[in-house]
Amino acid sequence: MHAWTFLTNFGDSAVTLPLAVAVLALFALSGSLSLLRGWLLVVALCGFSVALLKIGFSDCAAAGPLGRPFSPSGHTAMSTLVYGGLALLASAGRPPGVRLVALIPALALALAIGVSRVVVHAHSPSEVVAGFAIGGGALLLLHRATARATLRGSPLALIAVALVVALAMHGTRWPIEQQLQRLAALLHRDVPVCS
């Protein structure tokens, strides 16, 4: 497997969504309700934002830089939120400097996943930037929503569960993009956006 493909697979929804659900389950089991609510809200907001933009722009072939409709990178958006969110949540209740240090490798991973999307010709740089902006906005909301929260349980347990899920799901692909394209075709048949 090509190194860029190996890297890009860590951003697939088949990895990031199970990661998000595993984190949600940990918060539910530990009784960390404020973290659970914040996490659920931002994951839903990030996913729906990407989906709505993909559906909305799907009828606009001339609008995209690659000769196809503009499509923000869901891999980049969800990687920014999920991996960045894991870093923020694992360092919840710690001083701001510690949280920043925890965030740097997570954002570096998200950035590398974004670059991989361009290298494998799945997205243009502007689509990756759009994904990074969506995920970064959701991450900022998570930071604000959980600024005073503390993680119940060990941050190492959170990281261990995340590693197990990410490695177990790596290489799996879910056809979410194709499903969004089908939905968009149905919607735009009756309501053209860019025609």
Written account of the structure:
This protein is mostly helical. The chain has eight helices and no strands. Helix 2 runs antiparallel to helix 7 (155-169) and helix 3 crosses helix 8 (176-190). The longest helix is centred in the N-terminal third of the chain and has 25 residues, at 33-57. The protein is globular, with a radius of gyration of 17 Å.
Please give the oligomerization state of what you see. single chain
- What share of residues is helical? over 70%
> What is the element string, with H for helices and E for strands?
HHHHHHHH
Content of β-strand: under 5%
Name the average pLDDT: 87
C-alpha Rg (nearest Å): 17 Å
Structural class label = mainly alpha
Number of helical stretches of at least 4 residues: 8
Low-confidence stretches: none
Report the sheet with the most strands, covering strand number, pairing sense and barrel closure: none
Care to count the β-strands?
A: 0
Name the overall outline: globular
Return the domain count.
1
Ends apart, CA distance between termini: 40 Å
